[in-house]
C-alpha cells in the first residue's frame, strides 16, 4: 500500500491562489534495470496523476520511467468554493491510490 503526503491549506479566501504539494511513496521501477539474477526487473511505475476539485479536474500529469521514486508534484489552483480535492494516482499492475482533502472558504471581514 502506498503512502501519500499532501500539503495544502485547509482554508482560503474566494479567488485566492493556493499551492498544493503531493508526494506518494512508490519505487517507480523503470523496467530497464537488471536484478541480482541478471534478468530485467519488471516495470512498475505510476503513469498518471489527477487532481479534481469538487469533481472537476484542475490538474493532471502523465508520468514516465524517467520520474524518480516517490514522485513529488507541486501545482497551484484557484479557490472558488468550499469542497473536496481528490488526488488519484494510477499505475502499472493495477496500482491506484486516492486521497481526499477538504478546503473551506473563509469570509474576509469587510
From TrEMBL:
Residues 9-101 form the Sulphur oxidation protein SoxZ domain. Gene3D superfamilies: Immunoglobulins (2.60.40.10). This is Thiosulfate oxidation carrier complex protein SoxZ. The gene is soxZ.
